[in-house]
Design goal:
By secondary structure, the protein is an alpha/beta fold. The chain is built from 21 helices and 26 strands. It starts with 23 loop residues before the first strand and ends with a strand.
Length: 670
């Protein structure tokens, strides 16, 4: 479609995609099932007591009402927006008070905070979302948005009266500051994030009025609205209060470098990054339901307390959140975390402990610990994906790894049923990196090709690859006559997918067909450092995106970004529009072209058609080797912790439990 003529005024005149004001969010529904490990609350002992009934709670928390009475805080109607966002509880209206107790795997596990405390993006996903189409979006910090016919122009409108946690107004100026002075400041952001660019250049932002901005792109950017609901991009524009951060920005503060030196920073940029660290700087004003009071790096707990200016209410008009405080223990040992969970020391947890391996342990301690399971919809599509480095710096290893017959042979050599029994509690089935069977983009060929355990077939493909000769130890010889040996790198933190055990089993299977692999386990930070520098032979990671809807993150179906572990230089070439990285072969470039067409298509049906072509091409490329399809997921919650829905997905682009609206959780434990 042709680009529409820009209007002469800044009036909001285009088709509304989300209604303005009074928008309600349905928090969730329930699920069924019955067994020893069932997550259906109806099959478990309920420990609810008379105190479960929500009391007459008033319009604000008692502690805030007391502060209003003392003159320390304005009345609640002055702290809320003119049209606050209404959140419908998953079960029932809650009561004020109490603490949400949870745990993090050490101070680096801030992703848990992003998913629990920090999911208040520009837009947000429906709690029951199963895809990433525009119809799955709900209002977030933005009250509404509009997009023109060719997706080159977006207008976002904000709620009048929204305030930061220190009481200062949140306005369009904060969003402009975030975009123009942070995201587009080359000293702070050397490369503008991909969401804000198209193949023809970057977007520009203009102020419509005090509560609206217009973002214009040089060519269609049809997925931009959905990206504004993800953890990766959705917070960019709404976590940078101008009135606070401009004091540390060289474009606004002439003494920024002097201030940085006084605070023992190298320069103003380092100081600015520290000041905007949402989990480490308790002075940073926020729009989140809870404000940081004890940050990361201070003691063995992370603590946040209710934000008196939070901009959401329940259907009774009572200001959220219900819960007073959010306390996370920083625990370095997953086994210690598991023990504390079995003792009932966590109110709700969906991270680190909720593995298949731990489920029987947790099941046995439910009565003692006073907790129960709840279902989660697993959108992850693989337990362990082996990515050989197709862009290896060593030309010999590069040639070996790029040989498709070599990869097919390795895949057929893996006894996936044995791995599923030994590592995954007999749950799951052999599976490649492919959309899940319940996905609209399921491709049976891609999902099942080369998964049969067949040593003879594996040997035939390795022979066809040209590696028929072996040394005295039975190891196949590569193109230079040297034995084929390489290292598979895994992270010590395996997200419950037993990568050390799985990689060791795979190492044994490959040795049986003449391929010598070793396994190296290391901290994830070192693994990322090495793979980003293109130093790895092979990497194992989970299939945590692309299981339901790959349109936002096709990292395993094409070289898309720096998480496409099989070809990071190709992905860098794609993301930079050819400025850096390595140009991929023609077939891969064609796949990238199709994806770009999809991302520019305004018609959802056309998007789906083009995305299916991208996935079909992934069959032929066979970039990576998968192990198995993960079964449904689960979390744990105490029986006196309420309003946790059972419709959440487990998916990186759907940062659970954030879309379930944690601000409407409540506890009757006192």
């Amino acid at each position: 479609m042709g680009r529409q003529k820009k209007p002469e005024t800044d009036a909001l005149s285009r088709r509304r995609l989300l209604g303005v004001g009074g928008v309600s969010i349905l928090a969730g529904m329930t699920a069924t099932g019955c067994s020893l490990l069932s997550t259906d609350p109806s099959t478990q002992r309920q420990r609810s007591g008379p105190g479960d009934a929500a009391t007459a709670k008033g319009k604000e928390a008692p502690e805030l009402a007391a502060r209003v009475k003392s003159g320390d805080l304005p009345p609640v109607n002055e702290r809320l927006p003119t049209k606050p966002l209404v959140v419908h509880p998953a079960e029932r209206a809650g009561s004020y008070g109490g603490t949400w107790r949870a745990a993090m795997l050490g101070p680096s596990d801030t992703s848990w905070l992003d998913r629990t405390l920090g999911y208040d993006p520009l837009l947000r996903w429906r709690t029951d979302a199963r895809s990433f189409g525009r119809d799955q979006l709900l209002p977030g910090v933005a009250e509404s948005f509009e997009v023109n016919a060719d997706a080159t122009e977006y207008v976002f409108r904000f709620r009048e009266g929204t305030r930061w946690s220190d009481g200062e107004p949140f306005t369009a100026d904060d969003v402009l500051f975030a975009f123009n002075d942070i995201l587009r400041n080359e000293e702070l952001s050397p490369v503008l994030a991909a969401a804000y660019t198209t193949g023809e250049g970057s977007g520009t932002m203009a102020k419509v009025d005090d509560y609206a901005v217009r973002l214009t792109f040089p060519s269609p950017n049809a997925l931009f609205a959905q990206r504004m609901a993800t953890k990766a991009y959705g917070l960019d524009l709404v976590v940078h209060p101008k009135h606070y951060l401009s004091k540390f920005h060289a474009d606004f503060a002439d003494n920024a470098d002097d201030l940085a030196k006084a605070e023992k920073f190298d320069d103003w940029r380092q100081m600015f990054d520290a000041k905007r660290d949402v989990w480490a700087n308790p002075e940073l004003p926020t729009l989140h339901a809870w404000m940081v009071t004890q940050p990361i790096g201070k003691g063995t707990q992370f603590v946040a307390k209710r934000n008196p200016y939070y901009w959401k209410v329940d259907p009774d008009g009572s200001q959220l959140p219900y819960i007073d405080s959010f306390v996370n223990e920083l625990i370095s040992d997953p086994e210690v975390m598991l023990l504390k969970a079995t003792n009932g020391e966590f109110d709700m947890q969906t991270r680190t402990i909720n593995s298949l391996r731990n489920k029987p342990v947790l099941a046995r301690s439910r009565d003692k610990g006073g907790y129960e399971f709840f279902d989660m919809v697993n959108a992850n599509m693989n337990t362990a994906i082996f990515s050989l480095n197709l862009c290896h710096k060593d030309p010999v290893k590069r040639a070996i790894f790029r040989n498709k017959d070599f990869r097919i042979g390795l895949s057929h050599a893996i006894n996936r049923p044995e791995i599923i029994v030994a590592a995954y509690q007999r749950q799951g089935k052999p599976y490649q990196a492919a959309p899940r069977p319940e996905s609209d983009f399921y491709d049976e060929v891609l999902a099942t090709q080369y998964t049969a355990y067949d040593v003879d077939l594996a040997n035939r493909h390795l022979d066809q690859a040209g590696y028929t000769q072996r040394d005295a130890d039975g190891v196949r010889l590569g193109p230079t006559g040297q034995p084929i040996r390489f290292t598979v790198e895994i992270a010590t933190r395996d997200y419950g997918f037993a990568w050390a055990a799985v990689a060791d089993m795979v190492r044994g299977y490959w040795r049986e067909v003449g391929i010598e692999a070793s396994v190296r386990s290391e901290d994830a930070s070192l693994l990322y450092e090495r793979k980003d520098a293109n130093l790895c032979d092979a990497v194992v990671w989970q299939g945590d995106v692309g299981g339901m809807d790959p349109r936002l993150e096709p990292r395993y179906y094409m070289p898309y970004r720096d998480e496409s572990n099989f070809a990071i230089p190709w992905a860098a070439w794609y993301q930079s529009h050819g400025e850096v990285g390595e140009q991929p072969p023609p077939a891969v470039r064609e796949q990238m072209r199709l994806y770009d067409q999809m991302a520019a298509a305004g018609d959802p049906a056309e998007q789906d058609r083009l995305l299916r072509q991208v996935i079909t091409m992934a069959r032929e490329q066979f970039y990576v080797i998968g192990i198995s399809l993960p079964p449904k997921g689960y979390g744990i919650k105490r029986t006196d912790f309420h309003n946790v829905p059972t419709t959440m997905m487990i998916e990186s682009d759907y940062p659970e439990p954030g879309p379930s609206n944690p601000e409407q959780y409540f506890t009757t434990r006192r």
